[in-house]
Amino acid sequence: MSIKILIVDDEPDIIEFIRYTLEKEGYTVDQASNGLDAIKRSTEFKPDLILMDVMMPVLDGIETCRQIKENPKTNHIFIVFLTARAEEFSELAGFEAGADDYIHKPIKPRVLLSRIKAILGRGKNVEEKDMQLSVGDLKIDRSKYTVEQGNKLIVLPKKEFELLYLLAGKPGNVFTRDVILSEVWGDEVFVGDRTIDVHIRKIREKIGDARISTIKGVGYKLNV
Questions:
Q1: Per-residue confidence of the chain (224 residues) as pLDDT tens digits?
Q2: Whether residue 179 is found in the same domain as residue 218
Q3: What's the predicted TM-score (pTM) here?
Q4: Strands annotated E in the chain
């Protein structure tokens, strides 16, 4: 079954260029010109990945990403921002909203395809027996991308889920920042330590501060 990718941009030339590049590689492609259309197409087209501009009319990319990631029906979709803005605050806002990666314009076809393959390749080798994890009152189901704490269902964007799932795989063990970056974001995604801190803070807000400990200068661990 072909991988489905949704392109969201208000510039027709960019959409045409990316669409040609992706379809030539065998991807099934759909498009939207603004954030509201993207939210609608994410439930109808059901893409595996969304390539989305940050600056758009009607609804910007950051808010669009946040709404898609907060919807249990669409929060598993990978979201990659396409942007000409290089400011660090913009990237941090995107990652906090749940984005999986950033690709800066002008877009180079080889870089675009390489990053897409790297992102889509994550998690394919997870064994079935590891799909469900239980740590204390936390129940984490990777097959459904759901987290339950007691009788409460917690909705996590994909990157927050992946980070919690990694820590829950070996509760009590300390995961270094390098390991977290490699396992959750991949070697080809260029993010910094502050991105990890943002995601840890968001997870703590949802499951409780005491559940994750910071080991200063090293990394993080999930407490048993």
A1: 589 999 999 999 999 999 999 999 999 999 999 999 999 999 999 999 999 998 888 899 999 999 999 888 898 899 999 887 655 556 677 777 888 888 888 889 998 998 898 888 764 544 444 678 888 899 998 877 889 998 899 888 888 998 999 999 888 899 998 888 888 887 655 666 688 898 999 999 999 999 999 998 889 999 97
A2: yes
A3: 0.64
A4: 4-8, 28-32, 49-53, 78-83, 101-104, 132-135, 138-141, 146-149, 152-154, 175-176, 212-215, 219-222
Number of domain units in the chain: 2
Same domain, 197 and 92: no
- Taking alpha carbons only, the member of 217, 188, 206 closest to residue 69 is 206
Under a CB-based contact definition with an 8 Å cutoff, are residues 131 and 141 in contact? Answer: yes
Tokens 């990237």, located at residue: 91
